[in-house]
Design brief:
Distance between the termini: 33 Å
Number of domains: 1
Largest sheet: 8 strands, mixed
CATH superfamily: (Glycosyl)asparaginase
Number of strands: 13
CATH class: Alpha Beta
Order of helices and strands: EHHEEHEHHHEEEEHHHEEEEEH
Shape: globular
Number of helices: 10
Helix content: 25-40%
CATH architecture: 4-Layer Sandwich
Structural class: alpha+beta
Radius of gyration: 18 Å
Amino acid sequence: MNTAASPILLGTWSFSLAAIEAAWPLLGGSKDDLLEALQAACRHADLDPEVDSVGFGGLPDASGRMSLDGGIMLSPLQFAGVCGLRRHLHPVDVARLIMERTEHTLLCGEDADDFADRHGIPSADLIAPEAEAAWKGWRDRGGRDVVDQSTDAGLRNLRPVDPGLGTSAGGRLFRPGDDSETKEGPAPVGHDTIGVLARDAAGTMAAACSTSGLPFKVPGRIGDSPIAGHGFFVEPGVGQATATGTGELISGISASMVAVETLRRGGSLRDAVQETLQRVEDLGDLRPHHQVGIIVMDHEGRFATGGFRPGFLIAVRDAEGGRLLEPDLVLRPQDDGPPESATDGFAKSVPPPSD
């Protein structure tokens, strides 16, 4: 558990370190500054073609089309999500518009794209050439929907394992589907998301998520990322949380809500992590690729983190600088761990962006 005070930015996975570093200068003293910092962090990941689970670098659905989801939250009265965007690259930007300019909390599909058009957000090409090539390779191999995968050996390679920084894998969390010890590069299937928690110098908290969802998914599939209480949750005066991993598991237990509710009932930060991961364990019938990572922050800016299985890394940016951390708790530490390159990556950092 970390006891650092605010201001602070936390992100899921090592690729988010560059994103929160880029957002750090925007973390000023107003609510607008706080939201702008969250948007900037998510935009950074959206634009990075090396990140294979978010935005432009993400992998498409089974039809070869991209769809993006995201959400943003200040409180149970101020939040919104958007899902199934096919023409706009930054779902958190669209979600903020929904939060601030409508009475609604979730828009989806073509109507959400039209809403973004009406509010002046430019459309964009959502698929990187490498992502399109990966989809074509999957299709040409007789690809099938991820939900049809049936063998433990195949599914084990779908679990995200963070390679850390300074490896040829870059921001890719998924390795080729083989049994080697050094799996790097984009995998045929796999996914994850960027979740960011922010707290400014005044103690105001906010959270955001952005994702391209499960690659080669059934078209129309929506995960946890755009839904408050699932991929993210904020309760002023109590705390906030973001979850990442297998979206169906996260939604099944309302993971971020469980974590914050544990704090509200008087539990510690570690209790919140433990309770969330234990709820995953209690679901039963879990598969080798199932993973859930959780970051929980209390209203004073202290935080704790955990992973259901090894392979989850956390990015931190505060007054002491940017760094990567291992989870405080791994519920199943005996399961397959991260490659050696992940440990090597702990020692590396991302320099601040040049002016």
